[in-house]
Specification:
Blueprint: E1 7-12, H1 18-24, H2 29-36, E2 38-41, E3 55-59, H3 65-77, E4 80-84, H4 85-89, H5 102-110, E5 138-140, H6 147-158, H7 170-176, H8 201-204, H9 221-230, H10 235-243, H11 247-259
Parallel strand pairs: 1-2, 1-3, 3-4, 4-5
This protein binds iron/sulfur cluster (3 copies).
One iron/sulfur cluster binds next to helix 8.
Length: 260
């Protein structure tokens, strides 16, 4: 009897859908992927949908009570749950909203429309990553994800191996490329704590790293703070830098301090 291929379903929550687009644009590699797995749901590229799947690949962050219920249902159905991209892994740019009271955010975006104050959509207007709601088995970082990394992770998963996600800082790859450090050019950068795997693409092209791939498992935050202080980076600049993609870590640090 022909062995059944693992069934993969894609889902999205609060996101720009750019990570799914990366997969939709796999080009010739898509043939290899479909040889290995059956894609049973993928709203961006097909009409069919099935709730019978082994691997759930989920893009987006969780922002509403209805998202929580939907995510728990997906988790129940899936043997393996993959968090796809920065929104799913850490909350990404929409997590910035967590730093202000809900009413302030609503007023800033929608002016002071009183009808919005009672809107249930805004009741829990806090962004969460997937693993703050359910167990996540595999993380694919980045904004957007890297297509090759997605294929490598999928291949590792199917072989029962550990997904090959680097766990060292962006600075390592940046140094290998012999880039002049942006701090020497009076710029700021999250490279010392950011997870590598992108080939230090931003500093290589003159843009600061904003840690879209999240932090390494054990970031040297104190050393990074020393660098920021040495170059006299203002507290405001530091906050801007750290809240773009990685406000999750600020929240977690504050929570840990309160619990101590
Ligand atoms: S991680 Fe970035 S590219 Fe991917 S869905 Fe979120 S915002 Fe879009
Ligand atoms: S530019 Fe950024 S990534 Fe490169 S060495 Fe400097 S701090 Fe590290
Ligand atoms: S250099 Fe930093 S911001 Fe740019 S892709 Fe890599 S991790 Fe993301």
């Amino acid at each position: 009897m022909k062995k059944q291929k693992p069934r993969v379903a894609f889902f999205d929550f609060a996101s720009c859908e750019g990570c799914q687009l990366q997969i939709a644009n796999l080009e010739e590699a898509v043939i290899d992927v479909t040889k290995l797995v059956d894609i049973v749901s993928f709203r961006e590229v097909m009409k069919e949908h099935s709730d019978d799947y082994d691997i759930a690949v989920i893009e987006g962050s969780i922002m509403r009570p209805m998202d929580v219920e939907r995510l728990k249902k997906i988790r129940k159905n899936a043997k393996v749950l993959v968090a796809l991209g920065a929104c799913a892994c850490i909350g990404c740019v929409q997590r910035m909203v967590n730093q202000w009271p809900v009413e302030e955010s609503i007023a800033a975006v929608y002016d002071k429309d009183p009808a919005l104050n009672d809107n249930p959509y805004f009741a829990n207007f806090k962004t969460k990553a997937l693993d703050e709601v359910v167990t996540v088995d595999v993380y694919i970082p980045g904004c957007p994800i890297d297509r090759d990394e997605f294929c490598n992770v999928l291949a590792a998963l199917l072989q029962g191996k550990k997904p090959p996600i680097p766990d060292y800082p962006v600075c390592v790859d940046c140094k290998k490329k012999e880039n002049v450090c942006l701090y020497e050019l009076s710029r700021v950068c999250m490279g010392p704590v950011a997870r590598a795997g992108c080939g230090a693409i931003c500093p290589t092209h003159g843009s600061e790293c904003e840690a879209c791939r999240g932090y390494v498992t054990h970031p040297e935050e104190d050393a990074h703070t020393e660098v920021l202080e040495k170059y006299e980076i203002s507290a405001e600049q530091i906050m801007q830098l750290k809240s773009m993609f990685t406000y999750r870590y600020i929240e977690e640090k504050a929570k840990a301090e309160v619990e101590q």
